[in-house]
Amino acid sequence: MKNIVILISGRGSNMEAVVHAARNEQWPARIAAVISNRADAKGLAFAAAHGIPTAVVANKAYPSREQFDAALQQVIDGFAPDLVVLAGFMRILTPAFVEHYAGRMLNIHPSLLPLFPGLHTHQQALDAGETVHGATVHFVTAELDHGPVVDQAVVPVLPGDTEASLAARVLVQEHVLYPRAIRMFIEGRLTIDNGTVQIAAAPGVPATASA
Ligand code: GRF
């Protein structure tokens, strides 16, 4: 059994999607903990209701980013994680923290990276006149919203879209994309080769299909 620790700051809908997929698909992994930097994160109640240990490490209680990250790392490591999943975790991470989880920390970002890192991605896509938008799962590196891409989901931008309508369309895809990527990690199918993610074939599926 592998241990997954999920970090959230708010709603936690991606965390919910991962919890459901892990259980329904009987992954060889447990959600060992859901940890938030905010005590009021809505997702904590869902996790607790599903019997998942929760913890709050409040960033406001620490005078520096380094001290907060060190405290968070200690709590995370108490759950012996094989994988740390950032799911709407609204914090900029220190290089030491990122390095500690190198190759075992994933993030989902609501844009087709490298387009639109940072915040307000849906509005950015609308303002840029994009015809497609989406979400990206990537390994976390020290540079914000960069790092080797595992997978992406694409949605159309439709006439009359607002930030909210576009965000909702992307979110539906995030809930498919993120569990699928995490499952590949858990199955040991992801390797990072020179900054690029290689995905091994699923067990029992030939690496290349012939026509
Ligand atoms: C998602 O759009 C995710 O891509 C971004 O923050 C949002 C979190 O939503 N990183 P939720 O908390 O998972 O519902």
Brief summary:
By secondary structure, this protein is of the alpha/beta class. The chain is built from 6 helices and 9 strands, in the order βαβαβαβαβαββαββ. Strand 2, helix 2 and strand 3 form a beta-alpha-beta unit.
CATH C-level: Alpha Beta
Assess the beta-strand content as a share of residues.
15-25%
Round the mean pLDDT to the nearest integer and report it.
Answer: 96
How would the global form be characterised? globular
Distance between the termini: 37 Å
Number of separate strands: 9
What attributes does this structure have?
9 strands; alpha/beta; two-stranded antiparallel ribbon; binds 5-O-phosphono-beta-D-ribofuranosylamine; 211 residues; Rossmann fold; single chain; 6 helices; seven-stranded mixed beta sheet; globular
Layout of helices and strands:
Blueprint: E1 2-8, H1 13-24, E2 29-36, H2 43-49, E3 54-56, H3 65-77, E4 83-86, H4 95-100, E5 105-109, H5 121-127, E6 132-139, E7 149-156, H6 163-186, E8 190-193, E9 196-199
Parallel strand pairs: 1-2, 1-4, 2-3, 4-5
Antiparallel strand pairs: 5-6, 6-7, 8-9
Helix pairs in contact: 1-6
Bound molecules: 5-O-phosphono-beta-D-ribofuranosylamine.
